[in-house]
Amino acid sequence: MAEVAPRSLTRPVMVGNVQIGGGAPVVVQSMTCTPTADTEATCAQVSALAHAGCDIVRVTLPNRAAVPSFAEICAAAPVPIVADIHFDYQLAIAAVEAGAAKLRINPGNIGSWEKVDAVIDAAGAAGVAIRIGVNAGSLEEDLAARDDLTQPEKLVASSLRFVEHFEQRGFTNIVLSAKAHSVPTTIETYRALSRELPQVPLHIGVTEAGTVQQGTIKSAVGLGVLLSEGIGDTMRVSLTADPTEEPPVAWGILQCLGLRRRGPEIVSCPTCGRTQVDLIPIAQEVERRLSTCTKPVSVAVMGCVVNGPGEASDADVGVACGKGTALLFKHGKPVRKVVEGDIVNALMEEIDKL
Q: For the whole model, what pTM was predicted?
């Protein structure tokens, strides 16, 4: 009998019309970086993130002055909005009143249990979910100061006491994250959380992962390991870049693991001395033209006769190249031969017909 994935055992939590946990598909999210008080710019970025593949989007609420703009953003957004709250519990309550579908609060800076309880009561009355967002860089002082605990143990300890407090008050509409910039710490922490709190949906991510190349590598390794073990109900890839760079990486990880599909998968060879076409710019142009395509198709761009025919025939559409030409395949069958200059256009024509 196949082993049951931990994500299928977590409680379902609704964030607007999006389900996190309970065996639902892994939810992709990101966060805006525009000033929240700039309603137009933030709404535009929320829409861009939704177009890039986000199921939900997080928006910071830094002060009271931004509340009116935040309310407009929630009302206009094409996806549910999560309010990112730090330091001021009253902002969390204001976010609920402004239309947030979920709150993110940080145990390291939200304040006393009385303040936490006020947030719980407001969210509970409105049916708003809460993410308990523990972070290695902002742990509670008593935990941060302990030399007898490893970093994963500190993250887990913070998570456990907050989840237990929420559940003792009867509030179970929670998602949990415990993030660090270290990949091994991230993996160890989330494995422990999945064991200790199997009922709680987990938001996974490698925080402060870095710029596009490093951040993509760290996220692919850390989140890929966890997702392959069935751990993780929602995810964010954190990159020091335009936030619209994040969802495609998240979808790429999910697609590689066979968990969700959005857009094409391009299979292309690294080229070698047998390649007799200029394959690299051909593959790059195919990737560029498919950047806005959402069809879940596989496209093979192969450079020679060794693996080319097999890979091209396994894909929905593909080419196996020879000397200045390519044999075009569709659903495993050869369609026609095309010259090198027509390869990209021929592939696009066949993809458009799918």
A: 0.92
